[in-house]
Amino acid sequence: MKKKKISQKDLLIEFYMRNPNRDIPHFEIVPRVMREYKKKTGKVFADPDRGIRKLYQDGFLIQISKGVYHYDPNYIKNRNLEDFDEKTKKAIFERDKYRCIICERGPKEGMEIHADHVKPKDRGGKAILGNGQTLCSQHNFLKKNFGQTTLGKRYFIKLHKSAIKTQDKNLINFCKEVLDLFDKYGIDTNIVD
């Protein structure tokens, strides 16, 4: 039996159009579209979260809160979101020596790398060298799910715990000062050690 041809984007749009004017959390839509895509195509839906974010970035959805989106048929706005062109991607990779700026892994270690916007394009970030950074797939995924400051704070908490285990006093003090800055400026105060 031949499976139907349908794109992942089409399936997401179809779901939201069948459910207009209501706030839909990821946990409601993701399992449904994954099952439906498997049933219709026989394939696994690669990354529904990314597809949903892309619909938001394209102006099709309204973000209500983290992981909760709303489709209003009367509110579709077209945004001109900039992607990095190949020349700019290459310049970002060369500047960062083809290594993730967080873990320093890259193609030599078998890691796929991405040119990532420091300020997200859906928040007005431009596709210019100064707004680009190299991230491995893992850290690009984490940044998209947590946001840059959240990822940074989690990283320093992990580094701080590691420094305590190895009794590296210099690193302990450094991490403590960085984590204190998060608290001083009220950034990600919900994340605690």
Automatic annotation (TrEMBL):
<keyword id="KW-0255">Endonuclease</keyword>
<protein>
    <submittedName>
        <fullName>HNH endonuclease</fullName>
    </submittedName>
</protein>
<keyword id="KW-0378">Hydrolase</keyword>
<dbReference type="GO" id="GO:0004519">
    <property type="term" value="F:endonuclease activity"/>
</dbReference>
<dbReference type="InterPro" id="IPR003615">
    <property type="entry name" value="HNH_nuc"/>
</dbReference>
<dbReference type="InterPro" id="IPR002711">
    <property type="entry name" value="HNH"/>
</dbReference>
<dbReference type="GO" id="GO:0003676">
    <property type="term" value="F:nucleic acid binding"/>
</dbReference>
<feature type="domain" description="HNH nuclease">
    <location>
        <begin position="87"/>
        <end position="141"/>
    </location>
</feature>
<keyword id="KW-0540">Nuclease</keyword>
<dbReference type="Pfam" id="PF01844">
    <property type="entry name" value="HNH"/>
</dbReference>
<dbReference type="GO" id="GO:0008270">
    <property type="term" value="F:zinc ion binding"/>
</dbReference>
